[in-house]
Amino acid sequence: MTWFEAVFVLLAGMGAGTINAVVGSGTLLTFPALLAVGIPPVLANVSNTVGLAPGTAAGAIGYRRELEGQRGRLISLVPASLAGGIVGGVLLLTLPDSAFHAVVPVLILLGCLLVAFQPWLSKWISAPSHLHRGAWWVIPAVFATGVYGGYFGAAQGVLLMAILGLGLDSNLQRMNGLKNVLATVVNTASAILFIIVHDIDWLAAGLIAVGSTIGGFIGARYGRKLPPIALRALIVCIGILAIVTMVF
What main location does UniProt list (predicted)? Predict the structure, then answer.
């Protein structure tokens, strides 16, 4: 990796950490960046997961005030995210590389669509709800999102925000704090699994880890002031670039 490529990956990590804390689609920045510097897709995915774990943790720490009074929700939802992250990581490691090449462009497209339609999701998320303790389907839905996050993870945060918004009675900022914790659990679980059983590009993972940690704190502190439409446009454009790169 050249110095230019290293700076490129570092900046992608910062952008991803910032976006993950606010929106939850940072993989759409870092994964294409790793592909662009020549890292094979599966190795790029596992290295990306390892690198983003500290950044999601930074975002969760930055939202610690919004987590006050949500201990019960964390106790019920964290195990689902933990199990989902492990299952998703195992699927990534056991399914053939051809499956990853076939599925990931579809997942990226799904992530782009979720980000593009986030204004409509936000209307649902912001709607008042009488479900104080959560609908019955929230835990299995969080588990399923964890599986997705452990396997690839682009737009995992958007999925979580939609689930929490439709199934819980809470405001947007408190749900965002909860989302950051659950995403941290998924990323950390799958990252530990990958470190134990798979090769990691430690230079790429380290650059993303440094960048995403910085970005996580930036996103938690200042991200709410950024124009959402600009973030969505950037993510969708980079996601389309990733699809074109993988398909062609």
Answer: membrane
Coil, strand or helix at 69: coil
pTM of the model: 0.83
From the number of C-beta atoms within 10 Å of its C-beta (0-12, 13-18, 19+), residue 226 rates as middle
Characterize 50-65 residue by residue with b for buried, 16 or more Cβ atoms within 10 angstroms of its Cβ, and e for exposed.
bbbbbbbbbbbbbbee
* Per-residue pLDDT reduced to its tens digit, 31-56: 999 999 999 988 999 999 999 999 99
**How far is 214 from 11, CA to CA, in rounded Å?**
10
Cβ neighbours, 10 Å, residue 23: 23
Instruction: Report which DSSP code applies to 110.
Output: H
Residue 211 near residue 11, CB atoms below 8 Å: yes
> d(Cα 71, Cα 90) in Å, to the nearest integer?
29
CA-nearest of 122, 108, 109 to 228 is 122
The tokens 């689609």 sit on which residue? 25
- Report yes or no: 183 and 20 within 8 Å, Cβ to Cβ: yes
Query: From CA 81, how far away is CA 115, in angstroms rounded?
Result: 21
pLDDT tens digit sequence for 103-142: 778 877 777 777 677 667 666 655 554 445 567 888 999 9
**Separation between Cα atoms, residue 113 and residue 105, nearest integer Å:** 12
